[in-house]
Amino acid sequence: MNRDDKKKEVERLKSELGRAGSVFVMAFEKLKVSEDMELRHQIRTAGGRYCVVKNTLAELGAEGTPAGPVLKGLKGPTALAITELSPVGLAKALTAYAKSNPNFTFRAGVVEGRVISLRDISDIALLPSREELLAKVMYLLLSPARGIASTMQAVTRNLASVMDQAVKEGKFQQ
Q1: pTM for the structure as a whole
Q2: Mean pLDDT, all residues of the chain
Q3: Judging by beta carbons within 10 Å of its beta carbon (0-12, 13-18, 19+), is residue 114 exposed, middle or buried?
Q4: Which pLDDT belongs to residue 11?
Q5: Quick count: other Cβ atoms within 10 Å of Cβ 35?
Q6: What residues contact residue 20 under an 8 Å CB cut-off, 6+ apart?
Q7: What is the end-to-end Cα distance of the chain in Å, rounded?
Q8: Fewer CB atoms inside 10 Å of the end CB: C or N, the chain?
Q9: Directed axis angle between helix 87-100 and helix 33-45, to 10°?
C-alpha cells in the first residue's frame, strides 16, 4: 500500500467507526477461505460489515472514536465486524460462528460507545432480538384486552347455556 492508499483507508475507517453503533474486534489465525466466506455471509445476514484491517491503520482510524481504546496496540491478524443496527444479532452470529471454528476468537468490543469484555459479548448474544422484545411487549399490551374479551364472551356463552337448560326443563311453557 502506498501512502495515499493508507490515508484513504484511515479516512474510511474513521468514517465507519464514527458511524458504528457496535464494533467487534476479532482474531482469525489459520482460517480457511471457505470459512472466511461463511463468516462474511453470516455477518452480512446479521446486518453488519466485515473487514480485515492492518493494525496500525486501524489504530490511526480509530483515534477520536469510541473504538479508539480497543484498537490500540493490536498484534496479529485483526478483523472488525461493524454494525449501526442492534448489536444483538451480530453478537449472536459471531458467537455461533466462534463455537464452530476454534481458530476464530474475540478480542474486544464496543457497544453504543462503551467498551465491553469478552464475557459481555456472550451475554449480549443471549439477549432476545429487538423483534422478539417487541412481540413480547405487544403480547403484554394486548393481554388485558384479551382477558376482557374472553370474560364478555363467557358471560354470553353462560347465558345461552342457562337459557338452553331452562328450555329443556320446560321453564318457559305457557
Answers
A1: 0.69
A2: 84
A3: exposed
A4: 87
A5: 16
A6: 65, 67, 82, 83, 84, 110
A7: 104
A8: C
A9: 160
- Start-end of H helices in the chain: 3-19, 33-45, 55-62, 87-100, 118-126, 130-168
Q: Which helix (H) or strand (E) holds 79?
A: strand 78-83
Q: How many residues does the chain have?
A: 174
The residue assigned the cell 422478539 is 132
pLDDT in the model for residue 72: 83
Mean pLDDT of 46-66: 85
Q: How many CA atoms lie within 13 A of 115 on its CB side?
A: 10
| pLDDT > 70? residue 174 | no
Cell of 21: 453503533
Backbone φ, ψ for residue 52 (5° rounding):
-90, 130
Mean pLDDT to the nearest integer, 31-48:
86
The two beta strands, 114-116 and 22-27, are unpaired
